Amino acid sequence: MSEKEQIHGITQGEIVPLRKVKDPIFSEGMMGKGVAMRPSLGEVYAPFDGVVVSVFPTKHAITLKSDQGCEVLIHVGIDTVNLNGELLEPLVSETDRVKTGELIMRFNLSQIRERGYDTIIPLVILNTPDYETFDTTNETNGNQETLLMAIKKAATSIEVKETNQKEIALEHAIIRTLGGKDNITSIGHCATRLRINLKDEKVVDEEKLEKIPGVLGVVKSMGGLQVVIGNTVNQVYANIQKLYHIENSTEENKEKGSIPNRILNVLSDILSPAVPLIMASGFISAILVIMTRLGMDQESSSYVILNGAANVVFYFLPVMLAYTASKRFKCNTIYALFLGGLFLHPDIMGFASKGGSVDLFHLPVTAVDYSSSLLPIVLSVWVLSYVEKLADKYVPDAAKYVFNPFAIVVVMLPIALCITGPAGYLLGEGIGSILTLIYSHASWLAILLIASFAPLLVMTGMHIALTPIIILANFEHLGYDNMLLIAFIGMNFSQFAVALAVMLKTKKRNLKQLAASCAITAFLSGITEPTLYGISVKLKKPFYATFIGCIANGIFCAIANVKVFSFAPPSFFTLPIFMNPDGSNTNFILALCTVGLTIVVTFVATWILGFDDSVFDTESLEEA
After folding, report:
1. How far is it, in rounded angstroms, from Cα 426 to Cα 373?
2. Cα–Cα distances in Å, from 15 out to 37, 101, 136?
3. Which of 60, 129, 174, 608 is packed most tightly, with the most Cβ within 10 A?
4. Which domains, ranges and CATH numbers included, belong to the chain?
5. Quick one: which H or E segment has residue 31?
6. Active site residue: 190, 331, 550, 557, which one?
7. Mean pLDDT over residues 119-123, rounded?
8. Which range is most confident: 156-165, 349-358, 381-390, 463-472?
9. Residue 111: CB partners within 8 Å, gap ≥ 6?
10. Separation of alpha carbons 233 and 237, rounded Å
11. Is 518 a catalytic residue?
12. Angle, helix 375-394 to helix 317-329, in steps of 10 degrees
């Protein structure tokens, strides 16, 4: 017994096996082994000597690490995250030392019960794989002096490095539900989702994954798995890397699905890291429009600098995508950056402006402007990944350091300038020409269809790949977009209206708080996944109202020909993207009209259709 670590009582009350907690995240051991207590007073105590790893921002949970290395999550109540810290009072902060039996939290037990929450307190051992023995007390009641568990480390335990994460439980639960670290071949993220490729998707229980607190939804799309987190995805991804150090597999991922899906998956992986910077450039452009309306001189140095900052990401897009493409195709990043720089070198770019025939040792070179281009560099880096492997295979080890780079450059130079570069450019021009043709003959139909089906594009994750491709083509050929970003006026503001209507209509306090948070997020930032997955899809009928609002937006925009002049997600703060740089106000006024129309139509539809909010009922406090 002396070799075992001791875990003492975390409150005063009934001791309950973890399997009886009415939440599968705990009862099915998705987060690890442990025990629970049903409190008879609103106090939580430290179960051992150790340090506070994190106190959740919503105050409903604390993670601790013992001096012997045991990491535990103490979770006060079920679904109490929806209290947003109300009625909960942590008495410790991160990095604080705690002693066994020390009071670390107070909470209002009676009021939390009155609001319908189950107040049971699970204690979960987050690094369960490090232990082989879990002895739990046979006592039915206890307090801070009661020995709840005695655990013993496995002989080959792997210590999880300490991190200051806020949502450590979420990260552990996600990875374990995905089949563990070894089942993941690659992981990345976009604005709101973790994007994951797996060795074996059959071991993943999607139903359990969707029930993890903090997971808004799970989407299978474009040959991979997407876990919708919301606007905290950056932190979740960072925490996963701190805890598990997942690197992309050196083996080739076996792409799944049809060829178009596989292509979109690749393009999405390459484009996603650049999208936030592209949107930031859109914000700067929108601000410049406002400043010029207010009298800013376009010849001033301030304007020139800001305008340069707004355009730099587009001009040097081939270089940025060379970096992300090298990560996706698993080739040398320096060689990829060389190709990006090659396309943008002033002497080579100069051929496009001078005209005339250009050749490389009698090999014809298509003289074009590669700035802001997407496909030429993607195709070139894709070919580079194979050329590099051939060089590694056939160049003798003794000569690799010097000859490998030379061989790769000599081979890739004509391929990039004579084949993949021109091919990618022509393909991009073809996409632009098709879009222009659609606009000139049936723009109203295209706008209406895309706007109407915007919710499905978001749910399947297709918007992640399609949005940058089509919008970049539109801006390059037309100078504006009147298709995809127009569709997301309806999507983004309809979700604000749904959340607002649900907040005002529901009587359930937890749903009302969730809806208020979602409404603010959608309205101010244009991030809609929290509302879409947390409310619309879950309540069903508000999802139908979303379609109604999107259709109304599509009809208005198709008739009024509303345009977007900068790349940023439509929201309250990005409304200037609708301001026409030529100084006219017509488009901006029309944009405000469709925003108002979308909000009103969706709000009324949500209110009339109603919803069954019983899915937000919490379990009874009595044991089943």
Report:
1. 11
2. 5, 16, 10
3. 60
4. 5-158 (2.70.70.10), 171-255 (3.30.1360.60), 273-439 (no CATH), 453-616 (no CATH)
5. none
6. 190
7. 95
8. 381-390
9. 87
10. 6
11. no
12. 40
